[in-house]
Amino acid sequence: MAGPLPIADPAPADGLLPASATTDAASRVFGVYLHVPFCRVRCGYCDFNTYTSGELRGARQEDFAHQAAAEVRFARDVLEASGAPDGPASTVFFGGGTPTLLPAADLVRMLGAVRDAFGIAGGAEVTTEANPDSVDADDLRRLADGGFTRVSFGMQSAVPHVLAALDRTHDPMRIPLVVGWAREAGLDVSLDLIYGTPGESLADWRTSLGAVLAERPDHVSAYALIVEDGTKLARRIRRGELAAVDDDLAADMYELADEMLVEAGYEWYEVSNWATDAAHRSRHNLGYWRGDDWWGVGPGAHSHVGGVRWWNAKHPAAYAERLAAGVSPAVGRESLDHATRETERVLLATRIREGVEVSSLHAGGRHAVAGLIADGLVDARTALAGRLTLTRRGRLLADAVVRRLLETVFE
């Protein structure tokens, strides 16, 4: 289970938003995220808000679809009462946990609740995450028939000893099967990888990338392993059972991933994400990076509307109790001030291919551009045309780029 929630103001029981949050809401994209917090086993590196069956303590997986649908209806009422305009969801994303531990019928039911409450835009992107060993051909067909358009498989690696270090339970030979079943169902496919696992060599990583490219998914995510305090993996490294993550090797792995993916016809559009073309980028995740609006449904889920951010009770039992009492499942809320919103805007926009308009930066950030070009961190041609886009080296040092763009903003 994840660490404590942020310190902020208590969320109001009625969930109503200040008028400032819904100003100009019609001009912003709206998405819905549904957090399904259940896992069969806990992966050693994971600090997400997830629960195995032995940790539910009074909550039941079979009740979750009903509870999530109740929060969706609550969300509709709150947004309506707060003055937000009616408008369909442009994206819906089921994450976790392992959403596909629930029956496909439950996921379709939850999607139906979103459709009934908000409507779903024509051509909307509807994604579920899935472990390769949590679905079969019938499941994927039922999801596609129920309105899902995309599946994101947590592949992580194609190398057995790397999967073992991560406590992943699937057989890498299952990847071609699930990708084929998803294709037969008419679903777009993303394969998600992790690199930098203790004991993983550059040759191992090349093997995993080759396995991904053999499947020709529409989308690939590759995230550097972050060892979070309190996880089983952190304890194993601290005890000396596993080597610490090698940052230099991880950088080499990132560069190899970009080289191989670009050569195979993929384009990077966010530091850790590549797609075959613009149409197959994750529109839901782009909404996060662009600062759009979304309502997060489920235990521990975070939401954001018009500069107001809030988060739900973490444990499924506490979440269910609040919904049953007719009050908001949210337990904390904050209204982002100008400094925070500006920091987040630059931080997130810098990570995506479209980058940041130079003219939108504070004077100190504009003055930093020449040095970033000289250091090879941003593309000179696009910068001189008025927009900052990271080079491959800049993507490896994205946090440092952001610090230089913001270091004088609030002086």
UniProtKB/TrEMBL annotation:
Gene3D superfamilies found in the cross-reference section: Aldolase class I
Any one of the GO BP annotations: porphyrin-containing compound biosynthetic process
Cellular localisation: Cytoplasm
Residue ranges of every copy of the Radical SAM core domain listed in the record: 24-267
UniProt keyword terms in alphabetical order: 4Fe-4S, Chaperone, Cytoplasm, Heme, Iron, Iron-sulfur, Metal-binding, S-adenosyl-L-methionine
Broad class of where this protein is predominantly found: cytoplasm
Pfam families documented for this protein: Radical_SAM
Any one GO CC term of the record: cytoplasm
Example GO molecular function: coproporphyrinogen oxidase activity
PROSITE patterns cross-referenced by the UniProt entry: RADICAL_SAM
Described purpose of this protein according to its UniProt entry: Probably acts as a heme chaperone, transferring heme to an unknown acceptor. Binds one molecule of heme per monomer, possibly covalently. Binds 1 [4Fe-4S] cluster. The cluster is coordinated with 3 cysteines and an exchangeable S-adenosyl-L-methionine.
Protein family membership: Belongs to the anaerobic coproporphyrinogen-III oxidase family. HemW subfamily.
Protein name, as recorded: Heme chaperone HemW
Organism encoding this protein: Agromyces luteolus
